[in-house]
Amino acid sequence: MTKNFLYSAPTGGGKTLVADLLAIRNLERNGRIIYLIPYIALIKQKARDLKKIFNDSNKVVVELYFGSKDTLNNDYDLAVCTIEQGTKIIQSILKKKSKNNRFYTIIIDEFHIFFTPERGLLLENMLIKTQPDVTNLSCQIIGMSATFPNLNEVAKWLNAATYQCSYRPIPLLEFITAKIFNEIANLNCVKERKQMLGDLFCNGVAFHHSGMTNDERILIVDFYADKTIKCLFCTTGLAAGMNLPAHRVFINGINLGKSRMNLLDYKQISGRAGRVGYSDFGEIFVLVSTSNDFERATKLLTDTKYNLELSSSYSQVNERNAFDRRA
C-alpha cells in the first residue's frame, strides 16, 4: 500500500506497531523513513527502540532536533526528528533538481499537533509540499493519533485511506475529586533540586519538567520505566505519547499554564493510565478546587466532540499549491 494513511485508535490500540511495520516494509525496498515526533523526549525514546530493532542490520537511524549530535548532513535510512527538522529535510530534497529515486515514508506521530496554532501551520505547510502535483518527492504519508479531530476532513485533503477504532483494550475509570495540594516545591536552585530529587528517589518518588537537564530527564524516565520510581510528578511533557504506562494518573487542575485544558489535552493525558501488559484497568483522578472547575471537569469527562477546525480552508490550500508550483 502506497496511498496516504490516517489511523486513529485509543492508547494501546497498536498505532505504533502499524507504523513500524509500514516503515520496515519500505526500508526493505531501499526506501527512507522520516519519522516526525513533536517532543524531544519522545524522539529519544523512539530512536532507541528503532536502533534496537535494526541493531543487526546495516540501516542507519539518526535523531534530529535542536542541539542533537546527529545533523542533516548525516547519511540515514531512518530519521526520527521534530517537525522543524523534518521540514528542513523535505526542503533540502525539493531543492534538488534531479528526480529523487528513493521512496519516502513520512510517519507523523501525535498528528493532533496539526490542530495547534503554530506547529500545526508548520506541519500543514510541509504536507502541502509533499503533494504529487507540487513535488518531485515520491512518498507516503502515515498519520496517527489517539485524538484525531476531523479525521475524514483531513483524509479528504491528503487523499488518504483511514482507519478509526474506538476500542480501548484496557478500560479506564474516571473520577473528579477535591484538590488537596497546589505544588510540591518551587526550586530554582540546581543544588536544591538535586538534593530534593535524591531524597525523593530513595522513597521511589521523583519529578520531571523542562527545567531539568537532558541527562536528569532521561534518567528519571528510565528509572520510572523499570519501576524503580513508583510515583512521578511531571508536567504535560510526559503526557503525549510516551510509553510510560501508569495504573493511576492524577491531573492537578484543569488549566495548562494560562489556558484551559481542552478535550484533546485531557484525552492525551488520560491515555497514560492503564496499558496492556501492565494493569487490568486504569484510573484517572481530576483534582478541582471550585464548583466552576468541577463543572468544566465534568464536561471534559463526558464530552465527545473536539470542536476543532482545520487551520486553512481548501481554497487556501489550493492557492498555496498553485504558489508552490510557480515557485
Provide a descriptive summary of the structure in words.
- It comes from Dermatophagoides pteronyssinus (European house dust mite).
- This is DNA polymerase theta-like.
- Residues 1-166 form the Helicase ATP-binding domain.
- Pfam families: DEAD, Helicase_C.
- One of its GO terms (molecular function) is nucleic acid binding.
- This protein is of the alpha/beta class.
- The chain folds into 2 domains: 4-168, P-loop containing nucleotide triphosphate hydrolases (Rossmann fold), CATH 3.40.50; 172-302, P-loop containing nucleotide triphosphate hydrolases (Rossmann fold), CATH 3.40.50.300.
- The protein is built from 10 helices and 14 strands.
- The protein has helices spanning 15-28, 40-53, 83-95, 117-128, 151-158, 190-201, 214-225, 263-270, 291-302, 314-326, and strands spanning 4-8, 32-36, 61-64, 78-81, 104-109, 139-145, 160-164, 172-178, 205-208, 231-234, 248-252, 255-256, 259-260, 282-288.
- Strands 3-4-2-5-6-1-7 form a 7-stranded parallel beta sheet, with helices on both faces. It has a 3-stranded parallel beta sheet with strand order 8-14-11, covered by helices on one side. It has a two-stranded parallel sheet with strand order 9-10.
- Strand 9, helix 7 (214-225) and strand 10 form a beta-alpha-beta unit.
- The longest helix is centred in the N-terminal third of the chain and has 14 residues, at 15-28.
- It is globular and about 60 Å long.
- Residues 309-327 have low confidence and may be disordered.
